[in-house]
Design a protein that fits this description.
The structure is a single chain. With about 375 residues, the protein is mostly beta strands. About 5% of the residues lie in helices and about 40% in strands.
């Protein structure tokens, strides 16, 4: 029995009957699947940290490794980060891929634009690269999200050893950046004139932001890893400072204090935070009809807790939290919503899996 089949059997056999949902493995034997996008109702493309794009059928699990993909710096946290479709994908077939761009001694997060065809990518173009470069393979950020005006957001980390850069508005590290799809900076960014900050900077003071989602009302939500404790959920507003490393609810891995401050004038506090760390890895604001009780919930996948936190909020106040999918016993890297409201999970391992989640009642109703 191969390792991938063994892992799939363990996931299937170890999943208990849950009151709300059932799970099914769609694909396995993926090397650290970190993101996915829905090409149509039956097809996904999965981006792996190891630097491949895998086209997978949801119904048959048929899989193809796509050609024409860009090289990436695969080391520690480096590799392919996020894959999103252009808002006009149905007509232009454009996709955007965030990745670690080498070399090792001068690497950075970059965005590539390409046309997605049946067999792979064409018209591949690097439209943006974070400045300055760094020599650490960590804290890249790399999450992408489109706003309603067609501009693109990119999260960037502080590079782990360059944390003071997060407080420097002229550095693109430790930020949320906003750009056009041609790679240029919009004229209405907070520091567009370059006098008080970099023209691409939308918000700053971030450590390692790995969750990014835009609500139906246009609110921008982000979660980020704290150090030892202090993971945060933030509501992002243009030009605001979110504190790192001037303020933090966490401590250094050595046990030493990073800062005595958890709040300060001019710094936007988190909506909520987690101590000890849960290691949040992806953020989905669920809008589907299949899980009616979950509509509007924030689903936060985690690596340390190995679950998905379902958060409910009243405006900007957290009202409840529950743990989902912990029975899988896996580091969950991604939580995604399909076109029909089905939820898909990505497990952060090699081999990693794509797992489908459906409501138990809906699943039972289809049985003869």
């Amino acid at each position: 029995m191969t390792r991938s089949i063994f892992v799939a059997l363990i996931l299937l056999l170890s999943t208990p009957i849950h009151a709300e949902y059932t799970t099914r493995v769609i694909a396995d034997d993926l090397a650290f699947p970190w993101s996915m996008a829905f090409i149509d109702d039956d097809t996904i493309v999965v981006a792996t940290r190891s630097g491949t794009l895998e086209r997978i059928s949801l119904s048959s699990s048929e899989r193809k490794t796509l050609l024409g993909t860009p090289e990436t710096y695969v080391e520690s946290q480096g590799g392919y980060f996020d894959l999103v479709l252009d808002p006009d994908f149905s007509s232009n077939r454009l996709v955007y891929l965030a990745l670690a761009d080498g070399p090792a001694e001068a690497n950075a997060t970059a965005i590539y634009q390409a046309v997605l065809g049946t067999d792979g990518l064409t018209a591949l173009t690097k439209i943006f690269r974070v400045s300055p470069s760094k020599d650490t393979p960590a804290h890249y950020g790399g999450k992408l999200a489109f706003l309603a005006d067609g501009t693109l957001l990119l999260t960037t980390g502080d590079g782990f050893e360059y944390r003071e850069a997060a407080q420097d508005p002229f550095s693109q590290m430790g930020k949320v950046l906003r750009l056009k799809t041609d790679g240029s900076a919009p004229a209405n960014n907070p520091f567009a004139d370059g006098q008080n900050g970099d023209p691409y900077v939308y918000s700053y003071g971030h450590r390692s932001p790995q969750g990014l989602a835009v609500s139906t009302t246009g609110q921008i939500w982000l979660h980020e890893h704290g150090p030892q404790g202090g993971d945060e959920l933030n509501l992002i507003r243009p030009g605001n400072n979110y504190g790192w490393p001037a303020t933090s609810f966490g401590i250094n891995y050595s046990g030493a204090r990073i800062t005595p401050l958890t709040s300060a004038e001019g710094i936007t506090p988190p909506v909520t935070y987690w101590t000890p760390s849960i290691a949040p890895s992806h953020l989905l604001i669920y809008q589907g009809a299949l899980f009616q009780d979950w509509q509007g919930s924030f689903l936060v996948s985690t690596l340390v807790d190995q679950d998905v936190k379902r958060l409910t909020l009243d405006d900007t106040s957290l009202t409840s939290s529950e743990s989902l999918f912990g029975e899988l016993g896996a580091r969950i890297r991604g939580v995604h919503e399909g076109p029909d409201g089905v939820i898909y999970l990505l497990t952060d391992s090699d081999p990693g899996s794509v797992i489908e989640v459906r409501p138990k009642m809906a699943d039972s109703a289809t049985e003869p």
